[in-house]
Amino acid sequence: MTTESMAASQAKLKASSPAFKPSTSKLKQMNISGTPSANPGSSSSNSSSKPLKIAPAFTPRRLLQKQDEKPNSKKDGTWRAGGNSSKPVANSEATPATAMARPDKNAEDDHFLKLPQASSQMPYMKPAGYFAIDEALRRVLAGEMQAENSVVESNLPFQIHNYYSLSPIETVELYDASGSFGIQAIKAQSIVDGRHYCLHRITRAFSASQVVLNAIDKWKAVQSPGIAQVHEAFTTRAFGDSSLVIVHDYKPLASSLKTKIIDNGVAVPEAFLWSLVLQLASALKAVHSAGLAVQLLSTSTVAISPTNRVYINLCGLADVLALSTGFSMNSAQQGDLLAIGHILGTIIGTSHDSSASLQGQTPVHISAASFSAEFRELFNYLNGRLTPVIAIDDILRLAGSRVFVELDAVRRDADLLHNSLRLEMTNGRLVRIMCKMNFVTERAENDMDPEWSETGDRYLIKLFRDYVFHLVNESGKPVADMAHVVGNLNKLDAGSEEKVMLMSRDEKSCLVVSYREIKRCIEDAYKELVAPSKTWR
Fold this sequence. Notes:
Low-confidence stretches: 12-118, 352-361
Number of strands: 11
Structural class: alpha+beta
Shape: elongated
Order of helices and strands: HHHHEEEEHEEEHHEEHHHHHHHEEH
Distance between the termini: 43 Å
Helix content: 25-40%
Radius of gyration: 33 Å
Strand order of the largest sheet: 1-2-3-4-6-5
Number of helices: 15
């Protein structure tokens, strides 16, 4: 190919596709020049063994680095994921990419996304976190999924009522007028909707009529993010006794305040106590508005998640056990509000070495050095020292500006979840387009079918697949650039009119097409593949 013919080809290419402007430097990378070896008609003995060259529409970002830059160098004090260094090196300046690095690089994590560190990236390159959800949130969600799908070996029956795959969670002790009784929390999966639920089994002998069990129905209408939703109650002899089982929503990785804080002697800050009070008050507001009362509110019946979300468990148990006999609803609801003060006294007495007992019987006096004046006033109010009648509206008044702090935290979490959902929605679109593309390309059973040979549209799809996933640099090493993959798949899914140059593996043919044309080829080939009237040999 002469210089004049090359110039004419470039002029013709610019006229047919204005959006695509190949540069001379990029054409040189593909060995398109006036040399005889670049002639498409020339043959080469080793052309089939050559790696796929990079299309001129894309320049590997690693090639843009300086020649003397060493990606695995320790001069910048950064531990690079996938590098040769066996130990992480301290880095004084945290970056978005270093924040994504796992704490232990030897830990197995199939969901971890490895990309070059920020110090080895150009300014326009995105960090690893740009393509996935927040790393801390991902780890919490992964832990919840693992806890939800794991089954612990036990002597529990495999199935009771409409639930199977029973797995024990924890056992707590509660007290009433007749003494103590144990409640076993069991995780199970429903055969009706496939969801996981928490079955609370009362281990003492219990027998009740259907009229008593129907008392749980009024709890089904209580909707609040601060309570574990009640679904049903039934009795069973599958455990070898007459047990009462109440079905609630399952909260993965959530454990009672007694297990997580009291038993472990965890010291909690005042900010956590404010959040605990406000979350419990919000949940009790929904319960009391429905004309109900929890009556068993304690550190054993309040669960907390790894993200400090608080839930009231065992709602409806007091109604089924008829524990409210002889008490008015107003006094029962006042007991719920006083129970918040008892919970605070239990936590403070354990965390701050006070003289309070675990049942909240002994008055707790908190010092001014440990807590603010606002919290001390709230604490005294919840323990009935300021007024004999406690109201939720007064709790909010005493909380004051702390309500806005809690509201801001909720909004930040909502923004984080919203942004993460947008990323996952984008990932879902890319997965669908990748599935269709791989369904069509290189199907072994259709190699001998002349109607499905890799020519025309299907050949174009194959070249695009190689361009996106099978690139190599000048040294023949694979280019695993996530930004290149995501960017091209997004353009493909959107059907962009932008042009892209595709080259065959033998470097003898070169096609310039738009993403819209490639998308049409994929859709047409996929529709033909799944057509019910078509029978493949």
